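Ticket #4471: structure output looks truncated?

Reporter: J.K.
Steps to reproduce: submitted the chain below (402 residues) through the standard prediction queue, then opened the result file.
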Amino acid sequence: MTSASCGGAQDACAASPPLTNLPRRSAPGLRHTVGKIVPGQGRHLLCCGESMSATLPTTRSWRLLVFALLAVAGLFYVKWLPYYGRAFVAANQHSIGHSILMGDAASAPAPSWNAALGYALAYGKAIWQAMLLGLLLGSGIQALLPADWVQRMLGQHHFGSVLAGGLLAVPGMMCTCCAAPVVVGLREHRASPGAAVAFWLGNTVLNPATLVFTGFVLGWHWTALRVLLGIPMVFGLGYVANRMAGPGEPAAPVAWSPTAPEPRSAADVGRRWARIFGRMTVRLIPEYIVIVLLLGAVRAWMFPHVSPAIGDQWFWIVALALAGMLFVIPTAGEVPIVQAMLALGLGGGPAAALLLTLPPVSLPSLAMLGRSFPWRTLLVIAFAVVGFGIVGGALAVLLGLH
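Returned output as attached by the reporter:
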């Protein structure tokens, strides 16, 4: 803007009412007001905000482009390409590897430091790339995406928001812990509880790769059982989470409020992203590592010595549904676990309970989301997952699945 134009507009700027006296609107609304004809003035308000309003859509566009490229490239490298190759392995060999829980043995190793460290290392090797991607996406949501975009798509307390969250999870294919940082980012940017829960559960339960692995390795009747109960688990519990919160629930804290200026330069965005990434890593990862070590150490207490003696008794269906909900595994880890236990003589009922409860939630992921949801909501979700596992076990017994 030339100095002449600014000088010619000084009288109009001086004569117009101050911006603080205008009706209260969001920051984007105020920016679009600047430069328009003010009723009664007959002139344009030519101020520096005019160029700023023109800059904002441009910066939002390139931030969205960066986030989309990160999501697509990251998921292609970490999830889509490896799982594409593994699907052929599953089809040809009817196996995708050994059980991470107990290997080829009939029981997990006795509780010890070596058991804890051994499991943590094997598990960490399987998930570290996905966890890094989850942290980048979770912090990227807050640094790159405007909060009002997320709120418009996922912030409403109706079923459409839950449906959108569940469908967005399908290409993610992350384990419950690697999806947790993304859920944190969504909640920080005002996604509704139901949409965030559906996204969280949908990553594991609706994972198309795992459903394919299950069919090739265990049989397509097991895939059908998982889909039959997985769809109501994802969308039903998302709906319950919204109902528990209610339409008047305060939004989760956000990285910046809608009235704060959004970052415009690449340096501003980079600094914000690095700050949020560091804060999220420090907050989530230490407790996550401690709980994984603990579960690895005591897994022999959670899962019994497997033999034909463990049939379809109700005790074992309930016990393994509860153990499966608490324990932590990598993506699709439940498939070789159930395959190994069935080969050792485990009944179809307890096997179905594990197939349905091992993937969706775990003690570490519940802890990671403790600040994003009320604990009452998390407890309801956890015990509802156990309930779905018990129902699945009952159906497996009724249908004679093995």
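Triage note (M.O.): checked the attachment and the full token line is present. DSSP finds 17 helices and no strands in the chain.
Status: closed, working as intended.
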